[in-house]
Amino acid sequence: MPFWQKPECRFTCKPIPLPVYIRMRVRHFVSDYLFDMTFHTWITYFLACWLIAISPGSGAVLCMSHGLAYGVKKTSGTILGLQMGGMLLLFIAGAGVGSILLASETAFTVVKTVGALYLIYSGISQWRARIDTGKTAPAEQPDNAVSQATAPRIEVPALRQRILQGFLTNATNPKGIIFMVAVLPQFISAERPLLPQLLILAVTMCSVDLFVMHGYAFAAATMQGFFRNARAVKRQNRFFGGVLMAVGTALFFVKRTA
User: Residue 136: helix, strand or coil by DSSP?
Assistant: First the structure.
């Protein structure tokens, strides 16, 4: 007898059709693993994810900066890196390592310093970003060709660099560690398996954050029409560079929770 044709009960030998058996196994898997938390717990966490994602932070500033400079499509690489950094923090907090970081003054200071210095470095890099004005167009070209040639062209970092920048921005954010350690345990039940719960929380947070960060990038990209000359692009780079440096400087004053 094939493995899927199991008896319906101990009193009969009537086999179960394969489609019915598959539906039963899928239903059991979903109930035992994918929904390994109450709906009330999940919806509360879902709403909390929206509040966290919408609140401005270093990730939102980075998405708006890249969205305005590079467009939404190229900013997706940056957003992917942000999600990778967020997932790392989530699983670190879920595994209990985040509590160790908060308990150790030295470890927390190292993470905080690295995160602050990286944001300041990113801000300085954007502040000093080179702009190619492309003023080499010959005079006999049509007016529209000249305008396109003289439009500022920003050097777009490689996809790997954008992903790495997003990842480091979130992974070295001490505020993210504090939040994960303080908030995440409230949505995890000690009576249920840990890994399925972490997976549910990770997928929920990532889905919400992907939507919100792309929204920030799109909103910024719609303003690209106002930055068609080198002076405006330079002001844009200095504004977002200054914001990133200010956020990085503020991280030095983040304190551990008791």
Answer: coil
User: What was the pLDDT predicted at 145?
Assistant: 44
Of residues 48 and 175, the one with the higher pLDDT is 48
For 110-150, give the DSSP string. Answer: HHHHHHHHHHHHHHHHHHT--EE------TTS-HHHHHHHH
Q: Are strands 7-9 and 12-15 parallel, antiparallel or unpaired?
A: antiparallel
Task: Decide: helix, strand or coil at residue 14.
Answer: strand
Distances (CA, A) of 222 to 113, 127, 229: 35, 21, 16
* First-to-last C-alpha distance (Å) of the chain: 62
For the segment 46-59, what is each residue's pLDDT rounded down to a tens digit? 988 898 888 878 88
3-state SS, residue 254: coil
Sorting pLDDT into bands at 50, 70 and 90, what band is 28? low
C-alpha span between 20 and 124 (Å, rounded): 61
Identify whether the C-beta of residue 256 lies closer than 8 Å to the C-beta of residue 99: no
pTM: 0.68
Q: Is 255 exposed, middle or buried (0-12, 13-18, 19+ CB in 10 A)?
A: exposed
User: Which SS3 state, helix, strand or coil, does residue 93 take?
Assistant: helix
Nearest-5° Cα angle at 118, 115 to 122: 140
Amino acid at 229: N
* Cα 39 from Cα 60, distance rounded (Å): 29
8 A C-beta contact, residue 127 and residue 45: no
Place of tokens 């019915």: 20
